[in-house]
Amino acid sequence: MRILRRVIWIIFASLSISACGQIQPQGQLPVPYLPNMSAQPNRPSVFIETEYLYDWNDGQGKPMEGGARHYGFRKLVEKVTQASTLFSEVTLDFVEPKDADLTIKMAYRGSVRFNDVLSNPLGQIITLGYGPLNASQRSKITATVVDRNKTTIGNYVVEDAIETSLGPFATLRLSWERSTFEGVLENMVRNIYRKMLDDKILTNP
Predict the structure, then answer these.
(1) Strands, DSSP E only, in the chain?
(2) Which of 11, 32, 63, 182 could crosslink 194 through cysteines, CB 3.0-4.6 Å?
(3) What are phi and psi of 152, to 5 degrees?
(4) Domain spans of the chain?
(5) Do the beta carbons of residue 137 and residue 110 sit within 8 Å?
(6) What are the pLDDT digits (tens) for 70-117?
(7) Four-residue CA torsion sign, 78, 65, 32, 205
(8) CA atoms within 13 A on the CB side of 74
(9) CA dist., res. 162 & res. 149, Å (int)
(10) Fold topology of 2-198
């Protein structure tokens, strides 16, 4: 029982320390309105291709593939697309390409600038992942829209950023703040669909 109390105290103390600082979305994009409507068969079908690349050197390094991050981004795009009800059918690139009215390629590019030595990947290794984290994360999504005739009918770019300034045990705080990062990406995808509506590539009900 004493050991259990000690473990709980250590966890609580770690979380308290990690609560110092902030994770602040920069809000460079508006929160767009998307129509909330029931799905209709006369709306276009869509096949969505996704790509996820990032680097740890403020955009100057060699981009790396996202792996699990790519999977998470694909699921997020699927969720936002389904929720928008702008399409009669949504297919993503984890299945064979389908004949769709529109093909949208959403490509994520992310970069991180670390603001001190302990925050960078080497510093995190030295501190066994329990060091502080002071970093600027920039996110960009480009979207290319192609019709049935393989003609490009739209190109879009949206960007946003998150400033992170956390004390020791920052990795614990990051696990709790995952929704903050997902919320920024969701809003970026929503802004792309809003731009497609404004350009009449998609039809407002």
Answers:
(1) 21-25, 45-55, 64-65, 89-92, 102-114, 133-147, 152-166
(2) 32
(3) -75, 120
(4) 2-198
(5) yes
(6) 999 999 999 999 988 899 889 988 766 678 999 999 999 999 998 888
(7) negative
(8) 18
(9) 38
(10) Double Stranded RNA Binding Domain (3.30.160)
